[in-house]
Amino acid sequence: MTHRTAALILTSALAAIPALAQSVTFTEQIAPIIYNNCTKCHRSGQVAPFTLASYSDVKQHALTIASVTRTGYMPPWKAEPTWAAFRDERRLTADQIALIQKWVLDGMPEGDPAKEPALPTFPEGWTLGTPDLILEMPKAYAVPADGPDIYQNFVVQTGLTEEKYIRAVEIKSTARAALHHVLFFTDTTGGGRRQEAANLAATGQPGFPGFGSIFLLAVADPAAALAGGLGGWVPGATPEFLPTGLAYTLPKGADLVLQTHFHPDGKVEAEKTVVGLYFTTKPARDITQVQAPGYFGFRANIDIPANKADYKVRASFTLPVDVDAFSVSAHAHYLARGARMTATLPTGEVRVLFWIKDWDFNWQDTYFFKDLQSFPAGTRIDGELTYDNSANNFRNPNNPPQRVKWGENSFDEMGSLILNVLPRQQSDSSSLRTNVLNYTLYAPVPLVGTKPFFISAGIVDGASAQASPVTPGKVTVLYGERLGPANLANGQVSSGKVSTNAGGTQVLFDGIPAPVLYSSAGQVAVIAPYSLNGKSGTQVVVKNGTSTSDPVALPVTPVAPSIFSADTSGTGQGVIFNFDFSVNSAAKPADKGSVIVLYATGEGQTLPGGIDGQIANGPDYPVPAAKQPATVNIGGLPAEVLYAGAAPQLVAGVMQLNVRIPAGVASGDVPVEVLIGGAKSQPGITVSVR
């Protein structure tokens, strides 16, 4: 990328950002952002590929920094904002990202050196203080200079004569640049020690290879496996103590197993990990790990055909007792593209606990909730994963794509969503663990077979094309398999209403059939029922003839406007008509000061109340019921809204807005946004202005 090209991209990205201060300098605005969010990894001896510890460092990599922060690739925090806040989020604010973009466009001025903040102090010793027990690998492992990623498990004998309780684990690595992550497990069987001895005799290298070998230990010691091991270390993570009152159990005489993932860094490295263990008193409640699917998908029948771009896995576990959750995470390999965990309470409320839309094998973290999250008995935990085994997945390790099944190696696949919980009452610990073990080892694995199949990440906004909560009356599209007939079937209008059946397909929200706009095997478009108004969640089921899908839990939001785009991508030229009824485009731009008509959905409940599937036929038309009226910004300027309500002759849920283009807007493709009840439409929609 040339400097000119990068500058043009940044200029475009800034078009819709509110005006910033005229002067942005490194020492006053940029250094605090970089030093507090980036330098921890981007410094000598750490995992990042270059240092960011001075003005010259940051200026040298400024274009890269601007790009990766604008796209959200950095800082490495993959989890989306969801129902509950996480502790120590590594997420830049929109204002911080905008400051970086403007600083780069302005030529990266340094500013007054006297105003530059001091670099944070990064401890060279133990971050959490002197550990209660320090353990070290007896022999160094030689990491090759290049080649594929390596999973190697190292066994360190603890020599403990009594049970201990761990509140934190910290490591010191001698090959930090090649170390990707480490997971900590316990082994009371001696099985890991025997595997390491055999491998040492055969290869001269300590440890034993593979990921799945941990499963052999889990089968021999299920209690330790259900506790979830002792946590782990990933790049960028600062060692932390567990929340007060929580601890992992380290059994008497247990060995510590370090499951280590290496990513060769171009030179031969020698890793001899030192581990610091921090003890505490016996906790009042035992930790149990709930996985969906269980044991990283060991029994989930993962078998991904070559060139399959949207392979899906789902699993559910119903909590038998009241619990408090303290962290959530996921594990999968290179083909995974999305991971999502929801909790459906007995009341029907749906809570999104965890959602990664762009899975990256290189950034697997444990996300701690800021506060314990309580779930009553009967809550259903749903885990959903999507895999892309096509050539379009740039992370696919196989070229051309090959069939991939469950396995322990990086180029195999596995997958699970992981929730760490405590029983509300310690007396329920045994019941909880027994249920989890039975679910993992004995419960029938759900086979989709010939049933309709979809997951929540495959339910998208019909205008923005983005996965999002549903809204009463919103045009919604479901993507999946076996959802409808092989050939497209259009919805039918009868007695002034769109039918709830198209080609034998029905979509039910909490049992209420939704108007169906069209159906096919791979996708179905519907209008979410207005009965969702006032609800926080819903259960969605697809019926294809006599076959019914498993229910999928979705959150509900009252208002979420989105504008239809001309190419159905959710961005770019909007579906907009000029004052003379011509279709707005670069070839037919609208005049400044003229009236345009645009179309949206997601305005929520209307006044009078919306009727599912009804064709708007006047003489009076429903308008949004949100307390704040609909407003529109064009080119960053407020536009006069002449009408905002049901679109005449279209189905309820499609909204029309007649808007006057402000006289002061720029010419060209100008951004448009709709705001209703405090909610804003998706970015990227434009109108062509002359």
Structure write-up:
- The chain contains nine helices and 45 strands.
- The protein is mostly beta strands.
- It has five domains: 3-115, no CATH class; 133-280, Sandwich (Jelly Rolls); 288-331 and 376-441, no CATH class; 453-555, Immunoglobulin-like (Sandwich); 562-689, Immunoglobulin-like (Sandwich).
- Strands 34, 35, 36, 37, 40, 41, 42, 43, 44 and 45 form a ten-stranded mixed beta sheet that branches.
- The protein is globular and about 85 Å long.
Low-confidence stretches: 1-21
Helix vs. strand class: mainly beta
CATH level 3 topology of the largest domain: Jelly Rolls
| Average pLDDT metric | 87
Architecture (CATH level 2) name of the largest domain = Sandwich
Give the count of structural domains: 5
Q: CATH top level of the largest domain?
A: Mainly Beta
**What about the largest sheet?**
10 strands, mixed
As a percent range, the share of helical residues equals 10-25%
Shape: globular
Cα-atom radius of gyration: 28 Å
Strand proportion? 25-35%
User: What's the total count of β strands?
Assistant: 45
Number of helices: 9
Q: Termini, distance in Å?
A: 31 Å
Please outline what is shown here.
This protein has nine helices and 45 strands. The protein has 690 residues and is mainly beta. It has five domains: 3-115, no CATH class; 133-280, Jelly Rolls (Sandwich), CATH 2.60.120.230; 288-331 and 376-441, no CATH class; 453-555, Immunoglobulin-like (Sandwich); 562-689, Immunoglobulin-like, CATH 2.60.40.
Descriptive keywords:
34% strand; mainly beta; 10-stranded mixed sheet; disordered N terminus; 690 residues; 45 strands; single chain; 5-stranded antiparallel sheet; Jelly Rolls; globular
